[in-house]
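User: Show me a protein chain along with its predicted structure.
Assistant: Here is one chain, sequence first, then structure tokens.
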Amino acid sequence: MNHHLVLVPGFGGFDALGTLRYYEGVTRVLEETPLVLHYFPNLPTASVRTRAEQMLSFLDERWRRKEIRSGDEIHLVGHSTGGLDLRQLLWRYRELEESKDLRRADSVLDVLSHIRSVQFLSTPQRGTNLVRRLNQPLVRALLIRPLLRAFFESTRALRERGTSVSGRLLRRVLLRGKRLESDNWIDALLDTMEGCYSREGAHARALARASYFELLRWLLHMASDSSALSDLSPVHLGDAPPSPAHSDDPESERRFLVEHGIRYASIVTVARPKSERRFDLFNQLYALTAESPDARLGPPRAVQKLLDPRTTQMLSLSDNDGLVNTVSQVWPDAASCYLVDADHADVIGHYQAETAGDTHGALKRYDLLNSASGFDAEAFREMWMRIASFAQGKSYAGSARASRRSSAAPG
């Protein structure tokens, strides 16, 4: 029997893009576990419904190809919007169970019977105030869509070599030849652009060409469909289909999980800005997410800390991880949630930038948000080992006790 851990990326998600892997370092941490890892290549900004339908097909295909077999267990982890995708996926399974189209239902419900756990990581279960503030019709029509379309068209026009040269030129202008700690997300963008062309051997040229077309595909998806923005608003917008973020009945979802023997847990994240960097990207995002939050994001909650289980922290509406209000991540109840001091990107492996000497292959780790969370390699490893332990049937509390015994053991 195999335990399959399926990792679902969030908004803008991908498996790997240029030098940036979405879930960076997870494979290295979990290689000592018996889990079989699957990285779902999500549709970046499509609606939660569309993304969940894609995931339904992805899991069904793994089953049909016998990558997942009878007797195996499936465990799902969704980061950010990927957690909403998981809730939508479970809604879809419930619809198929109740459907009279038994041929379609039978083809995918075998997968449902093998799902044994679902874990949410920094998920905007009731949306995020950041999207409420930015997702205005004029902003989307006059700024977001034209900007994304311009990025796509310019990348297509520049082709591989032009995109790479543009990345080098922009680095000289923006970073003046230096890697700035607070601008690590710019490094990620420029590294990806530069990696679209290579003068090395045939294999390196082929990889660079593949990176270029992957970047082009990602930009086209982003420019063509930004429906996920509506799904992330705490207020249901217009005639857009409601997403799980707009559901006010977590009990019915919880019952479905219990009835099917699916265990569940949520890791919620909170960070703080750097006081000396007023105009830092993270500071600006944090302030936008914290300012005048909608009460629908959730009530103040006291949540147990994951890495310090004897401590709880009271969360207010304004607390957030730079992108998502922390109270919105508490679902379906505070008892099944665990708090981590980390920003939104820390928990997927982008907590500290790798220096040139630390790189492994073309893929690198970036400190994308650069908050003052204090999250580090030790916290990252501990958190993902807890996620792995939960997938293998242990409780978070039980894995915490085992971890403390291990760290106290001599030698």
